[in-house]
Specification:
The chain is of the alpha+beta class. It is built from twelve helices and six strands. The protein has two domains: about 250 residues, no CATH class; about 100 residues, no CATH class. Strands 1, 2, 3, 4, 5 and 6 form a six-stranded antiparallel sheet that branches. A hairpin with a 3-residue loop joins strand 2 and strand 3. The two termini are about 30 Å apart. Keywords: Cell membrane, Membrane, Transmembrane, Transmembrane helix. This is Putative permease, YjgP/YjgQ family. InterPro entries: LptG/LptF_permease.
Length: about 375
């Protein structure tokens, strides 16, 4: 009898979890629609754009899977409680432990899968999408100018007030770049900027720059230069604007690469902060992978109802615990240099979830409403 019941429970658990994962993926892809559309315009082939969309999925799965496990387990035990199937199971001699065992073992399997996604697939997809975006942007000066992160790093500003076509031309352009030699700002105004495969052209270009005067009590001298048309090689302008170096963070590395980096930093005597960041990233991945199990346990514990009246108190507890864990997850990532703090932020929520869930299940098993 047990295999039949277990198949029934697992089929319901995985069916709801799969639907939740698909729904979350659809929502998160929709939220990144602007970025996807922008890449699709830049992409030379539709196949590359399709690969870019698919690579967004592993990057969002590590958070989606635990939340889907939580929702699936809650809905499963709530439905069994309301339809009195859970009562029928227990009247047939099936204990609460026998009822929960297959679901918890399945959640352990899901946790291993989630850890693999975090350590291998998610890091690869994150790294590959960044590489593709940088390569496509570097081939077109207008894309470089519209890159807010790059312009922010350069200390510049770009805006187009006229008619523009993405990657082709921009009208009524305002471009401000820092002049580090003079500690001033250089302002470029152009009627139109046009970009093609080989050249970057400007029409009715005005350059305004300030030069310090010899007298400290006087105002700066303004130098205004007008040009009806300018032309430069696309590669030259791209090399000028691109970042000179690009640092690969720990979240771009697979587990094997991260461990190799950790051993190398320890052998070469790197700073304690760099080594702590590697340890913190490893702990974060284990914590996020393990969350599939802890969230399933929390859903099973707080979803069971043995009373005639249904209270929302348990759902509030679930929201607080799940929201608290996700919050500490992001705080712990920003506190990676403090190993003790990040370790506490990644592990204490799991201990709290497991202890509270075990206490609720103990009370339910003795006929007392859990929360």
């Amino acid at each position: 009898m047990f295999p039949i019941i277990w198949r029934y429970l697992l089929s319901q658990y995985f069916k709801v979890m799969g639907l939740c994962v698909a729904a979350f993926i659809a929502v998160l892809l929709t939220s990144r629609l602007d970025e996807i559309a922008h890449f699709a315009v830049l992409s030379p082939t539709p196949a590359l754009a399709a690969q870019f969309i698919l690579l967004q999925i592993p990057y969002i799965l590590p958070i989606v899977i635990p939340v889907s496990c939580l929702i699936s387990s809650i809905l499963l035990v709530q439905r069994l409680s309301k339809s009195h199937e859970l009562t029928a199971f227990r009247s047939c001699g099936i204990s609460l432990k026998d009822f929960l065992t297959p679901i918890l073992f399945s959640s352990v399997l899901v946790a291993f899968i989630n850890f693999y996604i975090i350590s291998e697939l998610s890091t690869y997809s994150h790294y590959q999408t960044i590489i593709w975006k940088e390569e496509l942007r570097s081939t077109n000066p207008l894309h470089l100018l519209r890159n807010k992160h790059l312009m922010g790093a350069k200390g510049g500003f770009f805006n187009s007030l006229g008619d523009s076509k993405l990657g082709k031309n921009a009208g009524e352009v305002i471009l401000a770049l820092p002049n580090k030699n003079q500690s001033r700002i250089t302002l470029f105004l152009a009627k139109e900027l046009i970009s093609d495969d080989n050249f970057f052209e400007g029409t009715d270009v005005t350059m305004i720059t300030a030069m310090p005067s010899g007298d400290p009590d006087s105002f700066d001298h303004l130098l205004v230069e007008n040009a009806a048309k300018t032309k430069t090689l696309t590669d030259d302008f791209s090399q000028l604007m691109k970042q000179k170096q690009w640092k690969i963070g720990n979240d771009y590395l697979t587990m094997e690469q991260l461990l190799a980096k950790l051993y190398e930093e320890q052998a070469n005597g790197f700073s304690v902060n760099d080594i702590n960041c590697c340890y913190s990233e490893i702990i974060r991945r284990f914590s996020l992978g393990f969350s599939a199990f802890s969230f399933t346990l929390m859903g099973l514990a707080f979803g069971i109802s043995i009373s005639r009246t249904h209270s929302l108190k348990k759902i509030l507890w679930v929201v607080l615990l799940a929201g608290g864990y996700i919050t500490t997850l992001f705080i712990g990532k920003s506190a990676g240099q403090n190993l003790s703090l990040s370790l506490a932020l990644y592990t204490i929520p799991h201990l709290l979830i497991i202890s509270l869930s075990a206490a609720v299940l103990y009370r339910v098993n003795h006929g007392i409403e859990g929360a």
